[in-house]
């Protein structure tokens, strides 16, 4: 699976639920960075509001993973980015490598304006050089 899409419902777009294992090795307050490590792999996605699906600008997304440069518990393997005017985020990081048999990333929305959501998307192949994840956030 290359991304996570929230289902559309009659009452609007449903909020994204946290995924099992998504918060593993989470480090609150990871700094906003231009890039994690040497780069070469792209983590990207969108952030929208539940209900109407409006894009959410200025939202902080934290990203971490087990990579060619470090374990997902290492502080240098964590970084955060901010969504643009269209609710899009993109952060370059080292190549993700399998941990516990699966190549996967971790992402978190944890800024407090909306409910916290942790995602753990699994890559289709350890050779993939990008991974997409999409958040639909529920206001608190």
Please outline what is shown here.
It contains no helices and 9 strands. It has 140 residues and is mainly beta.
Topology:
Blueprint: E1 8-9, E2 12-13, E3 41-49, E4 60-65, E5 78-82, E6 88-93, E7 105-109, E8 117-119, E9 130-137
Parallel strand pairs: 3-9
Antiparallel strand pairs: 1-2, 3-6, 4-5, 4-7, 7-8
Structure explained in plain terms:
By secondary structure, the chain is mainly β. It contains no helices and nine strands. The chain has a four-stranded antiparallel sheet with strand order 5-4-7-8, with no helix packed on it. Strands 6-3-9 form a three-stranded mixed sheet, with no helix packed on it. The radius of gyration is 14 Å and the shape is globular. The mean pLDDT is 92.
Query: In percent terms, what proportion of residues is strand?
Result: 25-35%
Shape: globular
Which sheet architecture does the biggest sheet show? 4 strands, antiparallel
Helix and strand content put the structural class at: mainly beta
The protein's oligomeric status is single chain
Q: pLDDT below 50 for ≥5 consecutive residues: which ranges? A: none
Side-by-side strand order of the widest sheet:
5-4-7-8
> What is the residue-averaged pLDDT?
92
Termini separation comes to 29 Å
Query: What is the radius of gyration?
Result: 14 Å
Count of discrete alpha- or pi-helical segments spanning 4 or more residues: 0
Helix content: under 10%
In total, the number of strands is 9
Write the element-wise H/E pattern from the N-terminal end onward: EEEEEEEEE
